[in-house]
Write a structure and sequence with these properties.
Largest sheet of chain A: 2 strands, antiparallel
CATH superfamily of one domain in chain A: Cytochrome c-like domain
Strand content of chain A: under 5%
Oligomer: heterodimer
CATH architecture of one domain in chain A: Orthogonal Bundle
Number of helices of chain A: 17
Structural class of chain B: mainly beta
Number of strands of chain B: 9
CATH topology of one domain in chain B: Immunoglobulin-like
CATH superfamily of one domain in chain B: Immunoglobulins
Low-confidence stretches of chain B: 1-26
Helix content of chain B: under 10%
Structural class of chain A: mainly alpha
Strand content of chain B: over 45%
CATH topology of one domain in chain A: Cytochrome Bc1 Complex, Chain D, domain 2
Shape of chain A: globular
Radius of gyration of chain B: 25 Å
CATH class of one domain in chain B: Mainly Beta
Number of helices of chain B: 0
Radius of gyration of chain A: 25 Å
Strand order of the largest sheet of chain B: 6-5-8-9
Distance between the termini of chain A: 27 Å
CATH architecture of one domain in chain B: Sandwich
């Protein structure tokens, strides 16, 4: 996501190995010491760059605040009702849980046997796999990576939610998670890690006429360089202005160099991995969120020598590979569900689960995209029928690695729609305000608004036919919740409030299946919050799709009964890991479960009028 | 499995066990990319429809069922339409994914940009993701918008 944000003012002084041209106010006193070591020509160039920066900042008429501490006031451009009332306490809860698991990871690291490098290239005999997986886990739960040391990767991806959003009230309201600079927030829900590392690098298949692979909802983590989309995905949030928001990837390198687990990093990736030195003002720079006006749009405010910049880039690639190793480990993607036991003849599906599986393969047609890798024979459609299919030549990952525009209505609660005014650092996340439309894969292929650069120009031609498409996630672990929420994801519970699809519009699995089943049965040309009298939103009324073009028509009118919808939900629950072996760290949720209501209208009490929200956003914008 | 057994205490004071398997293990599956296209059907015949599923003042959905055409999983239903049955000069197509395990395939095509209270004539076909048509033959049908 980050590169798209860097289209602003670029001051290219980095090529000269000069002292930091872009520095925070706290670093000004150090600048003289640094400059004394420079030659006159370099000083002249530096002066010119500083002048250019000052001019650019003056033109903006914004001021960056002191960068060494979190802003004294939160950024709150949101109309009433967008932010949940318990946001601060819930963020604090998650911070405690993250710290707890980080401490556990440190113990796991210390419990490793001493490394035994063997052969050339050296292999850590016996401990290599565990070492890189634990290293990834340590990184994943490290809050110190963020500018204000309050946000780890896991802050939005906790194991008890299948490594998706851990705060029920956020899942119910603002949808996207607050970044390190409270409360910047993005445009999509935190996608589950589980099995994401099985996605291949993004490719255009000319025979199929479609894209497959990549990570992120819009597939922008292509894997083009590391050949590891999950790894490249992990390089996004640390620099995303709406998430951790580091101003430079060198900040992650710097923070890893200070991490308590640096010895493990060097054990895995080499003792000479880190840059020889960092500029004296790096701590201050790295405590300032990306996009701060004081950076003047620079993508590399940390001044490093070319050699050290290369080392830093390599460290950031190793960050990616380590986290990807963790995500693919049995700690995250273990294949321990009832369904896996069923495939191994160690579990018998209940009558309801079996009916749901038959519908999943048959009338519901879910496995046209969520491939179960199972039957090569026509699916039996009657209860008690024998499945004579044999395992097909594909992994039962419950995804086709493709993308589709399912026609989700615009969710007017999405936080980014209101971030049209500068925060305390002079950064405006979304100047377009409420008019922003999420075109997903199509927008990425254009290297467009609020996405990443497309690394393959031959793909751009397919942008119009990819508009609105979002990645087909695995259905595995869609129902995974903390064990104390015994009712799962759906009311009346006790349930753990999750959110579904890229914009979190759907709030229960019942609603999810009902949407696939009836999107084209109850279509209304209205926005969310404006369903006609006599209808119920998400039950007998589906507002207009956010992106009407390229809508997938495999779904929309499946003809499922209410009972059949429930049976599919029952089957989806069999895809929850942790049946054959306890799911690691699933017991770390210390929040509460919700009760009451029903799954069909779950969350409807929080629906706000899109018309009123848009009017309010427009008033702020103008 | 060389897992770790870690005794943890959560804030509520309850004692829970977390088994975290971090040591050298391998997943039971290997990743495959998408499948190669299935064999194409010798003939693709409509078995139900085509018929109007839904119509309003400016859009409609046409629906039909055929035998599974095979070929690429990525498929499109295609509706060629117009207000003159002798001059069907507009084309709408909608994406679906074939289900290889189904002997049949339901196609549904969304036709947008229509005029209110107007009769349209149409024929249908289907095609693979690469644009290769399935050669579906059928009579000209018609529907009316509201």
């Amino acid at each position: 996501m980050t590169s798209g944000w860097r289209l602003g003012i670029q001051i290219r002084c980095a090529l000269l190995s000069a002292p930091p041209v872009v520095s925070t106010r706290n670093d000004n006193s150090r600048k003289g010491q640094s400059m004394n070591r420079r030659t006159l020509p370099v000083m002249l160039v530096v002066v010119l760059c500083v002048m250019a920066l000052c001019m650019s900042l003056a033109g903006r008429k914004v001021s960056a605040q002191n960068a060494t501490a979190p802003p004294s006031s939160i950024y709150n451009p949101y109309p009433p009702g967008i932010l949940p009332t318990d946001l601060n306490s819930e963020l604090a809860r998650v911070e405690r849980e993250v710290d707890f698991i980080e401490a556990e990871a440190i113990r796991q690291w210390h419990a490793l046997a001493p490394p035994v490098p063997t052969g050339n290239p050296p292999i850590l005999k016996g401990t290599g796999v565990a070492s890189v997986e634990i290293l990834g886990k340590l990184m994943n739960y490290d809050k110190n990576i963020s500018p204000f040391k309050n946000t780890a990767c896991s802050s939005c991806h906790m194991p008890y939610a299948a490594f998706s959003g851990p705060i029920p009230s956020v899942n119910l309201t603002m949808m996207a998670y607050p970044g390190s600079d409270r409360f910047r927030a993005g445009k999509r829900q935190a996608q589950r890690y589980t099995y994401s590392s099985y996605f291949p690098p993004l490719q255009y298949n000319a025979t199929q006429g479609a894209f497959f692979g990549g990570n992120f909802w819009d597939s922008r983590a292509t894997g083009y360089k590391l050949r590891d989309p999950a790894g490249e995905q992990s390089q996004g949030p640390p620099l995303d202005p709406a998430e951790m928001g580091n101003p430079d990837s060198a900040c992650i390198t710097y923070k890893l160099s200070l991490a308590v687990y640096r010895p493990l990093f060097e054990e895995v990736w080499g003792t000479d991995s880190f840059p020889s030195s960092f500029p004296p003002n790096i701590a201050s720079i790295c405590a300032t969120p990306v996009g701060a006006a004081i950076f003047g749009g620079s993508a590399t405010p940390v001044m490093l020598s070319p050699d050290d910049r290369t080392k830093s880039n390599n460290v950031y690639d190793h960050w990616a590979q380590s986290i990807s190793a963790f995500e693919k480990s049995l700690s995250v993607s273990p294949f321990t569900s009832k369904f896996d036991a069923f495939l191994a003849n160690k579990y018998t599906l209940t009558a309801e689960e079996k009916a749901g599986y038959d519908l999943f393969k048959g009338k519901g047609n879910c496995n046209s995209c969520h491939l179960d890798g199972r039957s090569t024979a026509p699916a039996p459609t009657s209860l008690g029928a024998v499945d004579t299919g044999v395992a097909a030549d594909t992994t039962p990952l419950f995804t086709c690695f493709g993308s589709a525009n399912l026609g989700l209505p615009k969710n007017p609660r999405v936080a980014i729609l209101y971030e049209s005014t500068p925060d305390s650092f002079g950064f405006t996340l979304n100047p377009a305000g409420f008019t922003y439309t999420d075109f997903g894969l199509g927008e990425f292929l254009r290297s467009g608004y609020e996405t990443a650069a497309n690394p393959n120009s031959s793909w751009t031609q397919f942008a119009p036919t990819s508009d609105g498409q979002m990645q087909t996630m695995t259905a595995r672990d869609v129902a995974l919740v903390p064990p104390q929420c015994t009712g799962g994801t759906d009311a009346p519970g006790p349930y753990f409030q999750k959110e579904f699809f890229h914009n979190g519009y759907i709030k229960s699995l019942k609603q999810l299946v009902h949407f696939y089943n009836t999107r084209d049965v109850y279509p209304y040309a209205v926005e969310s919050g404006h369903c006609p009298a006599g209808t119920v939103e998400k039950v007998t009324c589906w507002p207009s799709p956010e992106v009407p073009q390229n809508m997938d028509m495999t779904v929309g009118k499946l003809g499922l009964t209410d009972e059949e919808e429930n049976q599919i939900v029952a089957f989806l629950k069999t895809l929850t890991d942790g049946y054959t072996t306890p799911y690691p760290d699933i017991n770390t949720y210390t929040g509460t479960c919700m009760t009451g209501g029903n799954a069909s209208t779950q969350g409807n009490s929080t629906i706000l009028s899109a018309e009123e929200l848009r009017a309010g956003a427009g008033a702020r914008l103008h | 499995m060389n897992g770790f057994l870690v005794r943890v205490v959560v804030t509520a004071g309850a004692v829970m066990l977390c088994s975290t398997s971090m040591a050298a293990q391998t997943n039971p599956y290997t990743a495959n990319a998408e499948l190669s296209p299935a064999n194409k059907a010798a003939h693709v015949r409509i078995t139900q429809g085509p018929t109007l599923e839904l119509a309003n003042s400016n859009s409609a959905i046409i629906r039909w069922t055929s035998n599974n055409p095979g070929g690429t999983d990525e498929h499109f239903g295609v509706v060629t339409y117009g207000t003159d049955p002798k001059n069907l000069n507009e084309v709408a197509k909608s994406h679906i994914r074939l289900n290889r395990n189904h002997p049949y395939t339901v196609f549904r095509v969304r036709v947008d940009g229509l005029q209110p209270r107007t009769t349209y004539y149409y024929t249908v076909d289907s095609m693979e993701g690469n644009g290769s048509h399935d050669g579906v033959k059928g009579p000209i049908r018609h529907f009316a918008t509201r």
